[in-house]
Design goal:
By secondary structure, the chain is of the alpha/beta class. It is 38% helix and 20% strand. The protein has one domain (3-7, 34-57, 73-85, 108-309): UDP-N-acetylmuramoyl-L-alanine:D-glutamate ligase (3-Layer(aba) Sandwich). The longest helix is centred in the middle third of the chain and has 16 residues, at 140-155. Keywords: ATP-binding, Kinase, Nucleotide-binding, Transferase.
Length: 314
């Protein structure tokens, strides 16, 4: 595999009418999951991507499995659980802003993700491992899986990227969240926080100070994302800035996952950091041009056309 990721994938029901969720009457079924969004983005860009996780042996789990497989993601290490349900979420119609999202995931099959020897073989065979802070929060076994996966990737010579993707509501306390997320971040090659996440995790709101915190712990590169202000990378090449691309935003969910997919794709293709940031910003921008979390993620042809002409046409 070129890249492997893991976590919880859920079914998602997206409201088709504008307004608060409790007034919506029509929903469209889709999939949700930060890690599966990244795997989808990589697959669409022509990379061999795999996702590891647990799904309920139920209609929602079968739907998620079929959707991910249709995206070209390798699901060799996906297990079905007949004693726990697939989690799901309700999402409001975004209409260009941040949607309302309500989760139904407590006790889900996804939270039962647990490490095993075959998982280690699978992870260590990949060129790159991507993880987020979400599995660290959903269960003790999933948290252990994260630490074991990083160790296996390191043993196999893979590079490791980490997006904090903070979900405070999943943690017992902010203190625990900060401690555990930063412990994992220190094990990664790259850390990809949003500027507000960096403020929570390091106590600093300045991207340079956020980067200093992680570089001092042994991280090779830190890329701080700041929405419409763009992103800035800190590392062995110094400081490299990338402005955001201007697009008509339909839904902001998935932008960070698209950014991560673009950055990993560029790394796998051997691009230098300036070109890598440009690809990351472009994929992240295109991800916001569709209502679904992953619908806007581009293939190579669309990405190249966007970078050449600014056209967002599919």
């Amino acid at each position: 595999m070129d890249a492997v990721t893991f976590g919880e994938a859920m079914a998602m029901f997206v409201a088709q009418e504008s307004g608060p969720l409790h007034r919506a009457r029509t929903f469209v079924q889709a999939t949700a999951g930060a890690e599966t969004n990244v795997a989808t983005g990589l697959a669409r860009l022509g990379h061999r991507s795999g996702w590891v996780g647990h799904l309920g042996d139920d209609p929602l789990g079968l739907f998620v499995e079929e959707e991910l497989r249709s995206c070209g993601i390798d699901l060799t290490r996906v297990d079905f659980d007949d004693s726990a349900p697939t989690g799901f979420q309700l999402k409001s119609r975004a209409d260009g802003g941040d949607p309302e999202v309500v989760y139904f995931r407590r006790g889900s099959a996804g939270s039962r993700l647990a490490w095993s020897e075959p998982m280690g073989t699978y992870v260590s065979s990949a060129r790159h491992l991507h993880l987020t802070g979400i599995p660290l929060a959903i269960s003790e076994t999933a948290r252990d899986f994260a630490f074991q996966a990083v160790a296996a990737a390191r043993a196999g010579g893979a590079s490791v990227s980490f997006d904090p993707n903070l979900r405070p509501s999943l943690w017992a306390s902010e203190q625990e969240m900060v401690a555990v997320v930063n412990e994992v971040a220190a094990l990664a090659d790259w850390v990809l926080p949003g500027v507000e996440e960096g403020r929570v995790l390091t106590g600093h709101g300045d991207p340079a100070r956020i980067a200093e915190h992680y570089l001092a712990s042994g991280v090779t590169r830190v890329v701080v994302k700041n929405g419409c202000e763009g992103a800035v990378a800190f590392g062995p090449d110094g400081t490299v800035r990338q402005p955001a691309f201007e697009v008509d935003v339909m839904d902001t969910v998935g932008a960070g996952d698209g950014f991560a997919a673009g950055l990993i794709s560029a790394h796998l293709d051997g691009l230098e950091i300036g070109s890598a940031l440009e690809r990351a910003a472009a994929v992240g921008a295109l991800a916001t041009t569709s209502a679904g979390d992953k619908d806007g993620l581009p293939g190579r042809e669309r990405l190249d056309r966007f970078l050449a002409t600014g056209s967002v046409a599919a």
